[in-house]
Amino acid sequence: MIDNDLACLDAYRERPAAQQPDWPDPAELAAASAALAALPPLVFAGEADRLTGRLAAAQRGEAFVLQGGDCAEIFAEASADRIRNKIRTVLQMAVVLTYGASLPVVKMGRMAGQYAKPRSAATETRGELTLPAYRGDGVNGFEFTAAARRNDPWRMVEAYHHSASTLNLIRAFTMGGFADLRQVQEWNRGFMANPAYARYEQLAAQIDRAVRFMGACGADFEALKMVEFFASHEALLLDYERALTRIDSRGGKPYDCSAHFLWIGERTRSPEGAHAELLSHVRNPLGVKVGPTAHASDILRLADKLDPFQEPGRLTLITRMGADSVRAVLPGLVRAVQAAQRPVLWICDPMHGNTFTTAGGVKTRRFDTIMDEVKGFFEVLREAGAVPGGLHVELTGDDVTEVMGGSEAIDDEALTKRYETLVDPRLNHQQALETAFQVAELLRHP
Ligand code: PEP
Ligand code: CO
């Protein structure tokens, strides 16, 4: 069995692999892969198992999942301030959602490994010059020069080191008192001080009273100073994920120790493809993005491949339908999964189906459209008697202007003020909190 597991880990090499960089030099790739394989794991198998248990609870409707972070992490932005702001935003959202759901919130960052991106074209042309497309800092540089755009496998090693320092900071922040519930609630009060958010006042006041009530009852705030925070990213770059796949000393099973949770993207989720093959052999909890063109038969084949033993918590379907399609397309998929009695967790990514380019040429999303997809997701899952189990969002802890709308009404003109993303537009700190308040209302008033 164990030998078989090991042999299977390389079976993906025989499968079609979408969205892989064309590494220019095989010897260089081999050297970088060997260097990665010699480095310590970033997460431990036991932690991944614990997350599987948490996701199983979410599947049963006993927890709610919040997964958030950058579309693409950037080496130059893996700084203490940026990381702290992102964690703070996720923790603030989690407090609001915990109250809304009256359930524990499972917190996962799109952090500490989100360094590779799928692209719609392999090359980019500007004027006379055609270069490889930017595929994330883990592959090449964003700058439009031949030197920067060269796919460099040593960047995977650099991505590993940035992930390690990010995780180290995450662990320090979430274990060292920064995550104290009272402190997080204090930050939320700061958000409410802005009159733009008056519509959330009632809910915010209720949360405040609840936290005070707990204090008065003598709740163990010492225990609430620490939170569990898991790391996740898209398992896109097969060379990176394979090199970080390790055999667990406890039971001889392989785990992808680059993160607790890995997902397969919309463009790489072929059931016969290399991504599904590699991930089918690791024991981490897994996600699959499900877009509006997915057929029920694809999803069921993926479920057979990735979760043949129907283990609770193993498989999460991250729907990203677009606000226009969610109510029409999702019901059929949910019904098919229910009919096949597949134990999956459904969570909603309201970002990736709602991207458009403004007349001024800026890639953006509208806050209201994002919220409309979340509402549609809740409607569809509830109507089917299934559990709307979580939210997957692209956010930053900073005051960027990338998504239009929200109470601060970012418009065409405001978009250009602080547009920093290299890939997809992210909710800023305030928009992320607004999202949490609106989702809390959906959770409270089915
Ligand atoms: C992403 O999550 O950044 C992404 C590329 O999503 P999708 O695979 O759903 O398009
Ligand atoms: Co994205």
Q: What does this molecule look like?
A:
The protein has 446 residues and is an alpha/beta fold. The protein has a single domain (6-179, 226-444), classed as Alpha-Beta Barrel (TIM Barrel). Helices cover 41% and strands 14% of the residues. It contains 15 helices and 14 strands. The protein has helices at 2-8, 26-37, 45-59, 80-101, 146-149, 154-175, 181-192, 201-216, 238-243, 274-280, 296-306, 326-339, 367-383, 412-415, 429-444, and strands spanning 64-69, 105-110, 123-126, 129-132, 229-234, 245-247, 254-256, 261-264, 286-290, 315-319, 345-348, 356-357, 363-364, 388-394. The strands form four sheets. An eight-stranded parallel barrel has the order 1-2-5-8-9-10-11-14, surrounded by six helices. β9, α11 and β10 (315-319) form a beta-alpha-beta unit. α4 packs across α7. The longest helix has 22 residues, at 80-101. The radius of gyration is 21 Å and the shape is globular. The relative contact order is 0.16. The mean pLDDT is 95. The structure holds phosphoenolpyruvate (PEP) and cobalt (II) ion. Residues 71, 352, 394, 423-424 line the site of cobalt (II) ion.
Cα-based radius of gyration, to the nearest Å: 21 Å
Give the CATH class. Alpha Beta
CATH fold-level assignment: TIM Barrel
Bound compounds, each kind once, are: phosphoenolpyruvate, cobalt (II) ion
Order of helices and strands: HHHEHEEEHHHHEHEEEHEHEHEEEHEHH
Helix content: 40-55%
- Average predicted confidence as pLDDT: 95
Q: Could you say which overall geometry the principal axes of the C-alpha atoms support? A: globular
> What count of domains describes the coordinates?
1
Poorly predicted runs are: none
Q: How much of the residues is beta strand, in percent?
A: 5-15%
**Strand ordering within the main sheet:** 1-2-5-8-9-10-11-14
CATH architecture identity: Alpha-Beta Barrel
**Total helix count?**
15
Considering the protein shown, what is the CATH homologous superfamily? Aldolase class I
